[in-house]
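Lay summary

Proteins are chains of building blocks that fold into shapes. Our project writes down both the chain and a compact code for its shape. Here are two examples, one after the other.
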Amino acid sequence: MDKNIQLYCNTDATGKITKILTGERIIPTMTFQYFFMIDKKTEINLDKFYIENSQLKQMEGTTLIEVENLNPTTEQQLADMKKQMEEMQRLLNLLSTPDSTDSSPPEGTTEDPLPNSETETTIDSSEDIPKEGQPALEDSTPIEN
């Protein structure tokens, strides 16, 4: 990464950065103790740095946040596009491959349609229908008019 970012800063007695001014083309309006040329990754992670012996140093045990290149070269753009295309092709292949867990019926067979609410019901035996004067159920008594 290019070190094209200006860092103006002040520190306390322990070297902890207390005041900063950063940018690619800046003109400070006040006096600062230190000046450094830094990259974008350092600028993003300034809270993990301190100054010792007039040098900018990373605090021990800290992990820096990675910064994505906002202006990739043509080769980087082509490589990224190729990766995306390969991933898309892999996903398309997964979608077009028949899955053994598919719930559709095998070719050449048909499923019975689901019963709907308009299906007619017929009674095969006339014995099930009570005649006039007979009880509807065995343990019920006839209703008198």
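And here is the second example, written the same way.
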Amino acid sequence: MLPAWHPDRGIRRTTLTLACAAALLITTGAVIDAPWTVGIGVWAMIVAIAIELIYRP
């Protein structure tokens, strides 16, 4: 019997959450002309991609 919670699902949710937050931060930073917000968004996207590459099933 399979467990109710799969670790891959949690990693996938984390990656998608980080990617969505990064897209929101980059867009908001570009609209309000705040480079530090764009920078935080870029780092969030880098972390999301790194997690996806490391924890690929």
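What can we say about the second shape? The radius of gyration is 14 Å.
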